[in-house]
Design brief:
single chain, mainly beta, 2 domains, eight-stranded antiparallel barrel, eight-stranded antiparallel beta barrel, 4 helices, about 45% strand, disordered N terminus
């Protein structure tokens, strides 16, 4: 499955970014010269600064990923033609990866403004959360050249090299979200414990768990998934989340540092399962095994960044150090594929308890697994990064 194009770049207030976090556009290419030769004024709009040959844009948010880098810029660029026509290039976003480009809002529509050509300095450290880019060559796209030419009534503007880009950004966390500026007590607002590590590497192909012969049916259960906050906030900057097939969303809450009330937790209807007592410690359910299957789906949509992700039909496997959450994951309407979305760390759960035939595994932290080169979050989260938590409660027959 193709990796997500621009996931988990949490969009926090720009004041949280450092003063040195900037992107510089040096407009020294023939396409930029063509604009100036035709009398077009290239003007940075605050908080961007500079002049017709170099523009500096503050970085509002970003992602330092192993395979994809995303930087969202503040400010805009105004193109002003001699006849009074003007065009605004706003919401500039740099994406470096398989398809590297600089996009912008042009006349109200998202447009690939520049293609980023091969070469230049590209130092990205996902663990340190730093990005250092130098002399990346930018080529004006044919679509952008045509639209700019038409809107400014220019005689000619060809898709040629426009200039170069440099950027220096720090303070991104290991997952690519800007480091939180809230007190430590508020940083884990949804109260998910942190996992101790990545856990085991998923098998390929991924097997379907089998029921032990002596297992007991689970007759009723609840399955709740609390999603990583930075991911929910990022998706909330687009169309957001939606549920279907009986899945439910928690009531929206306004968490510290967020600009809007959002739903961070989701419930899935119980579809079946089984429980097996290992017998090692009858007083503790920590060494028992269980399989819970759920229905319904949660969709994460941010079409402006090319994200359309549906996670459906969870399979929660409780199996000691091999516990995990498997989902049927589909991207952009494609065929769903079963994937281990997170490994579950029972040793760090908020509570593991039982009473008679009732069992609860409360807020079991989830971690991005190792060895998931083809998974949804490959290249964006380092193995072992926390991604929310799962709570299951069930009763046996």
């Amino acid at each position: 499955m193709a990796a997500l194009a621009a996931v988990v770049a949490a969009l926090v207030p720009s004041a949280a970014r450092g003063a040195g976090d900037t992107t510089t556009l040096k407009l020294d290419g023939p396409a930029a010269k063509s604009l100036r030769d035709q009398g077009v004024r290239i003007v940075p709009l605050k908080p961007a600064s500079g002049g017709p040959r170099q523009i500096v844009l503050p970085v509002a948010a970003g992602l330092a990923g192993a395979t994809t880098t995303l930087l969202r810029q503040r400010g805009a660029i105004s193109l002003q033609a001699p006849g009074g026509k003007a065009l605004r290039l706003a919401k500039l976003r740099l994406v470096l990866g398989k398809d590297s480009r600089l996009t912008a809002k042009l006349g109200g529509a998202d447009v690939d403004l520049f293609r980023v050509l091969q070469g230049g300095r590209r130092d990205v450290d996902p663990v340190a959360g730093s990005v250092a880019l130098g002399r990346l060559r930018l080529k004006l796209t044919a679509t952008a050249a045509r639209q700019i030419g038409e809107r400014l009534a220019l005689e000619r503007l060809r898709p040629r090299r426009f200039g170069t880009l440099s950027a220096t950004v720090s303070g991104l966390d290991a997952a690519g979200a800007p480091a939180a500026k809230t007190p430590a007590a508020q940083q884990q607002s949804t109260a998910c414990p942190l996992p101790s590590g990545a856990g085991p590497t998923p098998e390929e192909p991924l097997p379907v768990a089998t029921r032990p012969p002596s297992a007991t049916d689970i007759t009723a259960a609840t399955i709740d998934w609390q999603v990583r906050e930075s991911f929910i906030r990022y998706i909330g900057s687009g169309e957001g989340t939606s549920v279907s097939g009986g899945a439910t969303a928690d009531p929206p809450v306004l968490l510290p540092g967020a600009s809007a009330a959002l739903s961070y937790g989701f419930g899935f209807p119980f579809a079946g399962g089984s429980w097996h007592d290992s017998g090692a410690n009858p007083a503790s359910p920590a060494d028992d095994t269980a399989l819970l299957r759920g229905g319904g789906a949660v969709r994460f949509l941010y079409s402006g960044h090319g994200i359309d992700l549906t996670t459906a039909e969870p399979e929660i496997e409780i199996a000691g150090a091999n516990s995990r959450a498997i989902f049927a994951i589909a991207e952009s309407g494609g065929a769903p594929e079963r994937q281990v979305l997170v490994n579950l760390d029972l040793s760090r759960a908020a509570a593991v308890k039982s009473s008679g035939n009732a069992f609860t595994y409360e807020r079991v932290p989830g971690a991005i697994p190792s060895g998931t080169a083809a998974s949804t979050f490959a290249g964006f989260y380092a193995p072992g990064t926390d991604f929310g938590c799962v709570t299951v409660s069930f009763a046996t027959g």
